[in-house]
Task: structure prediction
Amino acid sequence: MQGFEADYITEPILWLIAALLFFQLGLYFFTKYLKSEKEARAFFSGAAVFMFSYAIIRTIEVIRRYFVVGYYYDIEDFWYHGGSITDTSLYLRLAFLIISWIGIAYFYYRIESTILEKKTYYILTIAALLKLVINPMLYFPSIFNFNTFMIINSILFVICGFFPVVLFAYYALRNYVNKRGPWALLAVGLLCYIVGEIGSNPEAYLITSNMNQIVVHYGSPLLVILGGILLTLALRRLYEIGVEAPKGALPDDQIKKLQEKVVQLKYIIVIMLVFLAIAFSVILYYFL
Result:
């Protein structure tokens, strides 16, 4: 791996920062959801679910890779070098994939059914649901043909990942629904997010293994963080919320109570992440 020495401190901290950021963004869109009209609520629910699901899966992957396995490339060795993968690592990775693609599929469904007005015929949603089914099959090469399903998985990834980038860029050029700026930000933000995720994705190992590993390991979480910020800037501007409370919105007192609970939950998550970082440092100090 080009002489790269594994970093089990800085890199997981960067990924935990990304997880915390996406959790905060999920809270932001959940608040938008509470204050919005019916169609906008559907849209913001998709954004909130996507952000929350990413916070969950990234935390799962940090635990799997840096705590449970303690080795970067167990899955890659399992696929390409005849290595083995523990049951715990496998279950956590499958949980990562299932939660991830459910969140992405719901996010695409809400975009395609609201702002895109079903003009894409739910291609993105269908592709994400197919990824939900196909991707886990790669982890059972003794049952499913690995090369065949890797090709299918790669095609679906292009449809789910890079096709919407091109689509949103096209809408930016066309100034679709008079939202050129948000569409452009959405395209750039999604591209940053995808490229960052590729850097930590075992399925992209044959590509990333030939790249500068410092860029891959440190640049990936930074790109995901940048992508999350740009996605938020774009998504919040695709729907404008009026001054008056729309029909179907929750009463102000209920919104206030929910916001208070959200704030409490936020502090609990922050405390848990800090505790996790401290525990991780202690483990490193005594056992490495």
About this structure: The chain has one domain: 10-287. The domain at 10-287 is CATH 1.20.1070 (Rhopdopsin 7-helix transmembrane proteins).
